[in-house]
Amino acid sequence: MKLSLFSRFCLFLTIFIFCSEVLNAAPRYCRKKIREKPEVLLPANFENRWGFIDEEGQYFIEPYYEKAFDFSEGLALVELDGKWGFIDERGREVIEPQSVYLMHSFSCGKALFCKNRKYGFYDLEGETAVQAQFELASDFSENLAAVKIGGSWGYIDQTGGLVIKNQFALAGDFHQGLAWVLSNGKFGYLDQSGVSVVEPCYEFAGDFSEDLAVVRADRIYKFIDKTGLIVLDFQYEDARGFSDGLAAVEMDGKWGFINKKGDFEISPRFDGVKTGFCGGLAGVKIGDRYGFIDKRGKVIVEPHFQDLEPFRNGFARVSYGIKSGYIEKTEKNTWTIHRIPGYPRWGYYSEFYHQQKKPGEI
Questions:
Q1: Which of 317, 266, 312 has the alpha carbon at shortest distance from 290?
Q2: CA neighbor of 241 nearest in space, from 291, 282, 184, 288
Q3: What are phi and psi of 11, to 5 degrees?
Q4: Which residues, 6+ apart, have CB-to-CB distance to 228 below 8 Å?
Q5: Chain centroid to CA 190: how far?
Q6: Measuring CA to CA, which residue among 113, 111, 119, 167 is closest to residue 140?
Q7: Could you tell me if 27 and 41 are in contact, meaning their C-beta atoms sit under 8 angstroms apart?
Q8: How buried is residue 51: exposed, middle or buried, by Cβ count under 10 Å (0-12/13-18/19+)?
Q9: 250 and 268 in contact (C-beta within 8 Å)?
Q10: Element (H, E) at 272
Q11: C-alpha angle 167/168/172, rounded to 5°?
Q12: Are 268 and 256 in contact (CB under 8 A)?
């Protein structure tokens, strides 16, 4: 039976619409040849749209979103048309973009969101795990989250139940079983049962890391252990927490790195510290630019950058003016350049770039 011209047109239109819907519903990476998921996925911007590149600088998830953030617990926060959602490492929208404002990536299986000026949490399936009811909230850390109720801060568990009464002016995240809190204008520490371990007596308190925390008293920075005992009592003008066995401290306006005995492993000679040691490298400031040093204090990445972040999964995000990209950490001692397709310089860098640059080139 022959179809009329009108019937054939309707059939063609139906097929066209169906194919369009399938294409739009497909993961963003499917618009290119499907390939194996890379070990590393990094947010990258191309012409004001964000996608994700692999370790070679090639797009695995096409630049489609207005904003994109790092993957955490297998999902990445993205913005599309003013709405927020999460995609998986194949580019599939696990939590479709919606009008609520998603604050951060997943932590302990929960993601913070804001709706009608109240804060709550989603689970990994996009279901509301804790209703939006708090004035403010922080991410879950060690299965507890700080929340603000009635002008004061306390802590909830993953069901949303209040486990530490709201009684503090400020409250930090739990690290190594302890969290700093601000009470009556002073900082102290409590454990996960709400018991005060270090009474509030400090002008400042940092997170515990490698069993030590930075505190400040009388404008001098010191280090305490988890019992509150001062273990490093030197005249530091500023200090950062320990990472990879070393902590950055400032003396006489210059920054260096000490070990847990308080001895300088790297003498104070830098103008600032951006990141502690991670994977054997730390971000430091020399003049008005940032670069990376190793644990001997040797400059490994020349200070060309206006900003940088610590290494994660072997890569560090760096920026210079409006350009930004990545440095890759490898075991070799040479540098090569990789670029994002269609990008100008500063699109993407792998680690071994400085030995191949031309004189005077950044």
A1: 317
A2: 282
A3: -65, -45
A4: 189, 197, 198, 199
A5: 25
A6: 111
A7: no
A8: buried
A9: yes
A10: strand 272-273
A11: 130
A12: yes
| pLDDT score, position 14 | 53
Beta-carbon count within 10 A of 70 CB: 15
Q: How confident is the model at residue 335 (pLDDT cuts 50, 70, 90)?
A: very low
SS3 9: helix
CB 273 within 8 A of CB 281: no
Closest-CA residue to 180 (of 151, 148, 146): 146
The residue whose two tokens read 């059939």 is 11
User: At which residue do the structure tokens 């509150």 appear?
Assistant: 228
**Contact between residue 112 and residue 104 where contact means Cβ atoms under 8 Å apart:** yes
Structure tokens at 127: 């279901």
Closest CA to 32 of 58, 68, 70, 69: 58
pLDDT in tens, 141-183: 999 999 999 999 999 999 999 999 999 999 999 999 999 999 9
pLDDT of residue 355: 32
Tell me the pLDDT tens digit for each residue of 299-329: 998 999 999 999 888 888 888 877 788 888 7
Convert the pLDDT of each residue in 68-110 to its tens digit.
Answer: 999 999 999 999 999 999 999 999 999 988 877 877 889 999 9
Look at strands 220-224 and 213-217 and give their pairing. Answer: antiparallel
Q: Are 129 and 110 in contact (CB under 8 A)?
A: yes
- Closest Cα partner for 293 from 319, 313, 275? 275
**Joined tokens for residue 164:** 């530490």
Distance in angstroms (rounded) separating the CA atoms of residues 283 and 312: 13
Q: How, if at all, do strands 196-202 and 307-308 pair?
A: unpaired
